[in-house]
Amino acid sequence: MQKKTNVAVIGCGYWGPNLIRNFSSLPDCNLAAICDMKPERLSHMRNLYPGMKVTQDCREAIENPEIDAIAIATPVHSHFDLANQALLGGKHTFIEKPMASSSAQCKELVELAEEKNLTLMVGHTFVYSTPVRKIKEIVDHGDIGELLYISSQRLNLGLFQKDINVAWDLAPHDVSIILFVMGHAPSSVNCQGKAHMGSSVEGVTNLSLNFSNGGFATVQSSWLDPNKVRRMTFVGTKRMILYDDNEPLEKIKIYDKRVEAPPHYDTFAEFQYSYHYGDMYAPYLTQVEPLKVQCQHFLNCIRTGEKPISSGLEGLQVVQVLEAASVSLKKGGSKVDIDYAAKIDQVNTKKAKFRRVKQHSVSTPESGVSIELGLLAR
Ligand SMILES: NC(=O)c1ccc[n+]([C@@H]2O[C@H](COP(=O)([O-])OP(=O)(O)OC[C@H]3O[C@@H](n4cnc5c(N)ncnc54)[C@H](O)[C@@H]3O)[C@@H](O)[C@H]2O)c1
Question: Which one of 156, 267, 274, 334 counts the least CB within 10 Å of its CB?
């Protein structure tokens, strides 16, 4: 019988319990310890998981030779220190998004994981979701034509953070989806935003991503909106996809709509756009919790040595975009270039050479669900 992977989770605030629930539900995982600095969070977790080893000192988990892997769900400012300790302690490491507070920290972690031959994965949860995988498949097959632009809105009331602005809090999801679907990282970023509520931390931001192939994406993030909005639009030359993650069933709608300019014209009067209004189609999507697929993928990568779909390198790319956004915010929204290729090349790793690889598959043995991931690993 296959040995179970012993996992410890650090951080049991808002998000950590979701990782704990999923890891504890996977048959090839043994949730070995839970750690949080706050005793009240630990007593809550002890009630939910009687008999579970809980500790306020994360070193107990990191130094425990029985533990194979550490999952970190603490605030972003603590990600680097904890992940660094975990990797130095020889543990496979999962870090919640955003990977760290700076791209320099991300690079250090990528190099350390490479040097120690350990799995390093980042919680870009949506790239493990069925709707996003379906969108990627549709775009890659060329069904919507050439992808012209993506627009994304992630809005809600709160939760206001004290240490990071709303772009660092919410936009990692949109940016990771955009990079995943586009298949490459942007060349420059513009970002404008505003801090309200007497704080200096921006609670509303608008981000524009420019791609070297002419691609374009916008991301609107807000903690100050009356409604919870999770919408993305993928506009192609032939069709358009609307992804509404708040929809319970029909999360993706493909619209057979487009605008065409006349191929040639002689006079201004002949120049007429033609608007095509066709049907809408909502493809069937299997219902699987993305977080469960993500946790299973982490365990699979530890077992096989395969590079995760959202590895440290994808974590680094997202943080590079956020970093450029912070610089742009300070310059009132000016364009900030990301010398992405140069920065990635600085990462001294064989795996940093982005290339297409053979099909990956993420499966949850318990549910028998398998999602083909034939792409990425760039
Ligand atoms: N993937 C997703 O969809 C998603 C959703 C929400 C949050 N997150 C991410 O999860 C992470 C945690 O966010 P949150 O909202 O749960 O934060 P939180 O503040 O609610 O919880 C963090 C917990 O970590 C504990 N903690 C902090 N430093 C610690 C340390 N050194 N050792 C032990 N415990 C420590 C705190 O006591 C707290 O209980 C963030 O990176 C956030 O971006 C991801």
Answer: 267
